[in-house]
Protein backbone atom coordinates (compact mmCIF):
# COMPACT_ATOMS: atom_id res chain seq x y z
CA UNK A 1 0.00 0.00 0.00
CA UNK A 2 1.37 3.37 -0.99
CA UNK A 3 1.94 5.72 1.95
CA UNK A 4 0.12 9.04 1.66
CA UNK A 5 2.46 12.02 1.80
CA UNK A 6 1.69 15.43 3.32
CA UNK A 7 0.76 17.99 0.69
CA UNK A 8 -0.85 15.47 -1.69
CA UNK A 9 -4.53 15.23 -2.48
CA UNK A 10 -4.85 12.39 0.02
CA UNK A 11 -6.36 13.14 3.37
CA UNK A 12 -3.55 11.64 5.43
CA UNK A 13 -5.42 11.29 8.71
CA UNK A 14 -8.46 9.78 7.01
CA UNK A 15 -6.28 7.24 5.21
CA UNK A 16 -4.51 6.30 8.44
CA UNK A 17 -7.81 5.63 10.18
CA UNK A 18 -8.39 2.81 7.71
CA UNK A 19 -5.12 1.06 8.53
CA UNK A 20 -5.18 -2.19 10.54
CA UNK A 21 -3.38 -1.95 13.92
CA UNK A 22 -0.47 -4.15 12.82
CA UNK A 23 0.22 -2.07 9.70
CA UNK A 24 -0.07 1.21 11.62
CA UNK A 25 2.44 0.01 14.21
CA UNK A 26 4.79 -1.32 11.53
CA UNK A 27 4.74 2.03 9.74
CA UNK A 28 5.36 3.91 12.98
CA UNK A 29 8.40 1.77 13.71
CA UNK A 30 9.78 2.30 10.20
CA UNK A 31 9.24 6.05 10.47
CA UNK A 32 10.88 6.18 13.91
CA UNK A 33 13.89 4.22 12.63
CA UNK A 34 14.13 6.53 9.64
CA UNK A 35 13.97 9.58 11.93
CA UNK A 36 16.75 8.17 14.14
CA UNK A 37 18.99 7.59 11.14
CA UNK A 38 18.24 11.08 9.84
CA UNK A 39 19.07 12.56 13.25
CA UNK A 40 22.39 10.70 13.35
CA UNK A 41 23.23 11.97 9.85
CA UNK A 42 22.27 15.52 10.82
CA UNK A 43 24.53 15.35 13.88
CA UNK A 44 27.39 13.95 11.79
CA UNK A 45 27.03 16.78 9.26
CA UNK A 46 26.95 19.35 12.07
CA UNK A 47 30.10 17.81 13.53
CA UNK A 48 31.87 18.40 10.23
CA UNK A 49 30.33 21.84 9.71
CA UNK A 50 31.60 22.88 13.13
CA UNK A 51 35.18 22.47 11.85
CA UNK A 52 34.61 24.88 8.95
CA UNK A 53 33.79 28.57 8.57
CA UNK A 54 30.74 28.00 6.38
CA UNK A 55 28.23 29.45 8.82
CA UNK A 56 30.49 32.45 9.46
CA UNK A 57 30.78 33.20 5.76
CA UNK A 58 26.99 32.95 5.54
CA UNK A 59 26.65 35.71 8.13
CA UNK A 60 25.82 33.68 11.24
CA UNK A 61 27.81 34.48 14.41
CA UNK A 62 27.75 30.92 15.73
CA UNK A 63 26.81 27.39 14.84
CA UNK A 64 23.95 27.67 17.34
CA UNK A 65 22.41 30.65 15.54
CA UNK A 66 22.92 28.87 12.22
CA UNK A 67 21.01 25.80 13.48
CA UNK A 68 18.26 27.97 14.92
CA UNK A 69 17.77 30.31 11.97
CA UNK A 70 19.07 28.53 8.86
CA UNK A 71 18.00 25.00 9.81
CA UNK A 72 14.87 26.09 11.72
CA UNK A 73 15.68 24.00 14.79
CA UNK A 74 14.21 25.04 18.11
CA UNK A 75 16.60 26.53 20.66
CA UNK A 76 16.52 23.32 22.69
CA UNK A 77 17.07 21.09 19.64
CA UNK A 78 19.90 23.29 18.37
CA UNK A 79 21.65 23.06 21.73
CA UNK A 80 21.26 19.27 21.93
CA UNK A 81 22.37 18.66 18.34
CA UNK A 82 25.47 20.83 18.68
CA UNK A 83 26.59 19.34 21.99
CA UNK A 84 26.21 15.79 20.66
CA UNK A 85 27.95 16.75 17.41
CA UNK A 86 30.96 18.03 19.36
CA UNK A 87 31.06 14.88 21.50
CA UNK A 88 30.76 12.66 18.42
CA UNK A 89 33.94 14.14 16.97
CA UNK A 90 35.74 12.61 19.96
CA UNK A 91 33.62 9.47 20.16
CA UNK A 92 32.09 8.41 16.81
CA UNK A 93 30.31 5.55 18.59
CA UNK A 94 27.70 8.10 19.68
CA UNK A 95 26.40 8.29 16.12
CA UNK A 96 25.80 4.55 15.95
CA UNK A 97 23.98 4.59 19.31
CA UNK A 98 21.84 7.45 18.09
CA UNK A 99 20.94 5.75 14.81
CA UNK A 100 20.11 2.43 16.49
CA UNK A 101 17.91 3.99 19.18
CA UNK A 102 20.15 2.83 22.02
CA UNK A 103 20.41 6.47 23.10
CA UNK A 104 18.71 9.73 22.23
CA UNK A 105 20.04 13.26 21.90
CA UNK A 106 19.29 14.20 25.51
CA UNK A 107 21.04 11.10 26.84
CA UNK A 108 24.15 11.74 24.75
CA UNK A 109 24.18 15.45 25.60
CA UNK A 110 24.10 14.64 29.33
CA UNK A 111 26.79 11.97 29.09
CA UNK A 112 29.07 13.73 26.60
CA UNK A 113 31.10 15.85 29.06
CA UNK A 114 31.85 12.79 31.20
CA UNK A 115 33.01 10.38 28.49
CA UNK A 116 36.64 9.36 28.20
CA UNK A 117 38.47 7.05 25.81
CA UNK A 118 38.56 4.47 28.62
CA UNK A 119 34.94 4.62 29.81
CA UNK A 120 32.81 5.74 26.88
CA UNK A 121 31.75 2.31 25.60
CA UNK A 122 30.84 1.05 29.06
CA UNK A 123 28.96 4.24 29.94
CA UNK A 124 27.03 4.14 26.67
CA UNK A 125 26.12 0.51 27.32
CA UNK A 126 24.88 1.35 30.81
CA UNK A 127 22.65 4.12 29.43
CA UNK A 128 21.02 1.99 26.73
CA UNK A 129 17.25 2.54 26.78
CA UNK A 130 17.37 4.61 29.97
CA UNK A 131 15.06 7.53 30.74
CA UNK A 132 16.47 10.98 31.50
CA UNK A 133 16.17 10.58 35.28
CA UNK A 134 18.11 7.30 35.09
CA UNK A 135 20.79 8.89 32.90
CA UNK A 136 21.14 11.71 35.43
CA UNK A 137 21.88 9.06 38.06
CA UNK A 138 24.65 7.67 35.82
CA UNK A 139 26.05 11.20 35.52
CA UNK A 140 25.90 11.56 39.31
CA UNK A 141 28.01 8.42 39.65
CA UNK A 142 30.54 9.68 37.10
CA UNK A 143 30.77 13.19 38.56
CA UNK A 144 29.22 13.36 42.04
CA UNK A 145 27.97 16.72 43.23
CA UNK A 146 28.57 17.86 46.81
CA UNK A 147 25.80 17.57 49.37
CA UNK A 148 23.15 20.22 48.85
CA UNK A 149 22.93 22.56 51.85
CA UNK A 150 19.43 23.00 53.25
CA UNK A 151 17.92 26.42 53.74
CA UNK A 152 14.52 28.05 53.55
CA UNK A 153 13.77 31.44 52.04
CA UNK A 154 10.65 33.51 51.64
CA UNK A 155 9.27 33.79 48.12
CA UNK A 156 7.64 36.91 46.69
CA UNK A 157 3.87 36.89 46.53
CA UNK A 158 2.73 35.10 43.36
CA UNK A 159 1.61 37.35 40.52
CA UNK A 160 -1.36 36.60 38.25
CA UNK A 161 -0.21 34.34 35.46
CA UNK A 162 2.84 33.02 37.30
CA UNK A 163 3.18 29.29 36.71
CA UNK A 164 6.06 28.71 39.08
CA UNK A 165 8.76 30.61 40.99
CA UNK A 166 11.81 31.89 39.18
CA UNK A 167 15.07 30.00 39.51
CA UNK A 168 16.95 30.91 42.69
CA UNK A 169 20.44 32.35 42.80
CA UNK A 170 22.35 30.32 45.45
CA UNK A 171 24.62 33.26 46.16
CA UNK A 172 21.78 35.45 47.39
CA UNK A 173 21.67 36.34 51.08
CA UNK A 174 18.53 34.43 52.03
CA UNK A 175 17.39 34.37 55.65
CA UNK A 176 17.73 31.00 57.37
CA UNK A 177 13.98 30.67 57.83
CA UNK A 178 11.12 32.41 56.09
CA UNK A 179 8.31 34.01 58.00
CA UNK A 180 5.12 32.03 58.44
CA UNK A 181 2.00 32.78 56.45
CA UNK A 182 3.77 33.17 53.09
CA UNK A 183 5.04 30.72 50.48
CA UNK A 184 8.52 29.35 51.05
CA UNK A 185 10.79 26.84 49.38
CA UNK A 186 13.57 24.54 50.48
CA UNK A 187 16.43 25.17 48.08
CA UNK A 188 19.90 23.96 47.24
CA UNK A 189 22.37 25.02 44.51
CA UNK A 190 21.11 23.97 41.10
CA UNK A 191 23.14 22.25 38.42
CA UNK A 192 24.77 24.53 35.84
CA UNK A 193 23.09 24.61 32.46
CA UNK A 194 20.54 26.47 30.35
CA UNK A 195 18.46 28.94 32.34
CA UNK A 196 14.93 27.83 31.58
CA UNK A 197 12.24 27.80 34.27
CA UNK A 198 11.92 24.50 36.05
CA UNK A 199 8.88 23.00 37.79
CA UNK A 200 8.28 23.98 41.41
CA UNK A 201 9.15 20.48 42.61
CA UNK A 202 12.39 18.94 41.38
CA UNK A 203 14.50 15.92 42.25
CA UNK A 204 18.10 15.98 41.02
CA UNK A 205 20.63 13.15 41.53
CA UNK A 206 23.80 14.44 43.20
CA UNK A 207 25.72 11.22 43.86
CA UNK A 208 24.91 7.51 44.26
CA UNK A 209 21.83 7.30 46.54
CA UNK A 210 21.93 11.07 47.19
CA UNK A 211 19.35 13.46 45.76
CA UNK A 212 18.49 17.13 45.96
CA UNK A 213 14.79 17.88 46.54
CA UNK A 214 13.47 21.36 45.84
CA UNK A 215 9.84 22.08 46.61
CA UNK A 216 7.69 25.12 47.34
CA UNK A 217 5.63 25.02 50.55
CA UNK A 218 3.09 27.29 52.21
CA UNK A 219 3.31 29.10 55.53
CA UNK A 220 1.26 26.52 57.49
CA UNK A 221 3.50 23.72 56.17
CA UNK A 222 6.56 25.67 57.24
CA UNK A 223 5.11 25.99 60.75
CA UNK A 224 4.56 22.21 60.85
CA UNK A 225 8.16 21.67 59.77
CA UNK A 226 9.39 23.97 62.53
CA UNK A 227 7.21 22.28 65.13
CA UNK A 228 8.37 18.81 64.06
CA UNK A 229 11.98 19.98 64.24
CA UNK A 230 11.48 21.32 67.76
CA UNK A 231 9.69 18.18 68.98
CA UNK A 232 12.39 15.93 67.53
CA UNK A 233 15.37 17.75 69.05
CA UNK A 234 15.99 14.85 71.42
CA UNK A 235 16.16 12.36 68.52
CA UNK A 236 17.57 14.67 65.83
CA UNK A 237 19.63 17.31 67.68
CA UNK A 238 20.90 18.81 64.44
CA UNK A 239 17.37 19.59 63.25
CA UNK A 240 18.26 18.00 59.89
CA UNK A 241 15.24 18.57 57.61
CA UNK A 242 16.12 15.52 55.50
CA UNK A 243 15.92 13.25 58.56
CA UNK A 244 12.64 14.89 59.60
CA UNK A 245 11.22 14.35 56.12
CA UNK A 246 12.25 10.69 56.20
CA UNK A 247 10.52 10.19 59.55
CA UNK A 248 7.41 12.00 58.38
CA UNK A 249 7.15 9.89 55.23
CA UNK A 250 7.65 6.68 57.24
CA UNK A 251 4.76 7.61 59.52
CA UNK A 252 2.62 8.74 56.57
CA UNK A 253 3.16 5.49 54.65
CA UNK A 254 2.25 3.43 57.70
CA UNK A 255 -0.94 5.45 58.12
CA UNK A 256 -1.79 5.16 54.43
CA UNK A 257 -1.29 1.39 54.54
CA UNK A 258 -3.68 1.12 57.49
CA UNK A 259 -6.27 3.29 55.78
CA UNK A 260 -5.88 1.83 52.29
CA UNK A 261 -5.55 -1.85 53.09
CA UNK A 262 -6.80 -2.09 56.68
CA UNK A 263 -3.25 -2.97 57.77
CA UNK A 264 -2.61 -4.15 61.30
CA UNK A 265 0.50 -4.68 63.40
CA UNK A 266 0.03 -8.45 63.00
CA UNK A 267 -1.87 -9.16 59.76
CA UNK A 268 -3.50 -12.55 59.43
CA UNK A 269 -2.18 -14.88 56.73
CA UNK A 270 -3.95 -14.47 53.41
CA UNK A 271 -7.08 -16.59 53.23
CA UNK A 272 -9.45 -17.06 50.30
CA UNK A 273 -12.62 -14.93 50.42
CA UNK A 274 -16.08 -16.39 50.40
CA UNK A 275 -16.87 -18.02 47.04
CA UNK A 276 -18.59 -15.60 44.68
CA UNK A 277 -17.59 -12.53 46.66
CA UNK A 278 -16.32 -9.47 44.77
CA UNK A 279 -14.78 -8.05 47.95
CA UNK A 280 -10.98 -8.19 48.03
CA UNK A 281 -9.76 -8.89 51.58
CA UNK A 282 -7.18 -6.54 53.06
CA UNK A 283 -4.63 -9.32 53.42
CA UNK A 284 -4.96 -10.11 49.70
CA UNK A 285 -4.47 -6.43 48.83
CA UNK A 286 -1.38 -6.24 50.99
CA UNK A 287 0.13 -9.38 49.45
CA UNK A 288 -0.61 -8.22 45.89
CA UNK A 289 0.70 -4.71 46.55
CA UNK A 290 4.00 -6.09 47.83
CA UNK A 291 4.29 -8.72 45.08
CA UNK A 292 3.61 -6.22 42.27
CA UNK A 293 5.73 -3.52 43.98
CA UNK A 294 2.90 -0.99 43.92
CA UNK A 295 3.10 -0.74 40.11
CA UNK A 296 0.93 -1.72 37.17
CA UNK A 297 1.74 -5.34 36.31
CA UNK A 298 0.32 -5.30 32.77
CA UNK A 299 2.74 -6.95 30.34
CA UNK A 300 2.56 -6.37 26.59
CA UNK A 301 3.09 -9.02 23.90
CA UNK A 302 6.80 -8.15 23.69
CA UNK A 303 7.28 -8.69 27.44
CA UNK A 304 7.34 -4.99 28.38
CA UNK A 305 5.75 -4.25 31.74
CA UNK A 306 3.81 -0.99 32.13
CA UNK A 307 5.11 -0.20 35.64
CA UNK A 308 2.95 2.93 36.12
CA UNK A 309 2.63 3.99 39.77
CA UNK A 310 -0.17 6.58 39.55
CA UNK A 311 -3.85 5.67 40.00
CA UNK A 312 -3.15 1.96 40.49
CA UNK A 313 -6.15 -0.32 40.96
CA UNK A 314 -6.76 -3.96 41.86
CA UNK A 315 -7.64 -6.04 38.83
CA UNK A 316 -9.14 -9.52 38.48
CA UNK A 317 -6.97 -11.46 36.00
CA UNK A 318 -10.00 -13.66 35.39
CA UNK A 319 -12.86 -11.15 35.57
CA UNK A 320 -15.23 -11.35 38.49
CA UNK A 321 -18.18 -11.52 36.07
CA UNK A 322 -16.59 -14.63 34.54
CA UNK A 323 -16.17 -16.36 37.90
CA UNK A 324 -12.80 -14.95 38.91
CA UNK A 325 -12.24 -14.88 42.66
CA UNK A 326 -10.47 -12.35 44.85
CA UNK A 327 -7.39 -14.44 45.58
CA UNK A 328 -3.74 -13.48 45.59
CA UNK A 329 -3.24 -15.57 42.45
CA UNK A 330 -6.11 -13.88 40.56
CA UNK A 331 -5.66 -10.27 41.70
CA UNK A 332 -3.05 -8.04 40.06
CA UNK A 333 -2.27 -4.34 40.06
CA UNK A 334 -3.22 -2.26 37.03
CA UNK A 335 -3.05 1.42 36.28
CA UNK A 336 -6.47 2.88 35.58
CA UNK A 337 -6.01 2.92 31.82
CA UNK A 338 -4.79 -0.68 31.57
CA UNK A 339 -7.56 -1.85 33.90
CA UNK A 340 -10.12 -0.23 31.63
CA UNK A 341 -8.31 -1.50 28.51
CA UNK A 342 -8.42 -5.12 29.69
CA UNK A 343 -12.08 -4.81 30.62
CA UNK A 344 -12.86 -3.50 27.12
CA UNK A 345 -10.73 -6.22 25.54
CA UNK A 346 -12.62 -8.90 27.45
CA UNK A 347 -16.18 -7.55 27.43
CA UNK A 348 -16.13 -5.27 24.38
CA UNK A 349 -16.15 -1.52 23.84
CA UNK A 350 -19.50 -1.13 25.60
CA UNK A 351 -17.68 -1.71 28.90
CA UNK A 352 -15.44 1.35 28.45
CA UNK A 353 -15.33 3.42 31.62
CA UNK A 354 -17.12 0.73 33.57
CA UNK A 355 -14.54 0.51 36.32
CA UNK A 356 -12.29 -2.27 35.08
CA UNK A 357 -12.42 -6.03 35.43
Tell me what you see in this structure.
- The chain is α+β, with helices and mostly antiparallel strands.
- The protein is 43% helix and 9% strand.
- Strands 1-2-4-3 form a four-stranded antiparallel sheet. Strands 5-6 form a two-stranded antiparallel ribbon.
- α7 runs parallel beside α9.
- It starts with 11 loop residues before the first helix and ends in a 10-residue tail after the last helix.
Amino-to-carboxy terminus distance: 38 Å
Oligomer: single chain
Unreliable stretches: 163-183, 186-199
Strand runs, count: 6
* H/E series: HHHHHHHHHEEEEHHHEEH
Radius of gyration: 27 Å
- Order of strands across the biggest sheet? 1-2-4-3
Largest sheet: 4 strands, antiparallel
**What is the share of helical residues?**
40-55%
Assess the beta-strand content as a share of residues: 5-15%
Q: What is the overall shape?
A: extended
| Tally of separate domains | 3
Average per-residue pLDDT, rounded, comes to: 80
Structural class: alpha+beta
Tally the helices: 13
State the gist of this model:
With 357 residues, the protein is of the alpha+beta class.
List keywords for this structure.
single chain, 357 residues, alpha+beta, DNA Binding (I), subunit A, 3 domains, four-stranded antiparallel sheet, 13 helices, 6 strands, extended
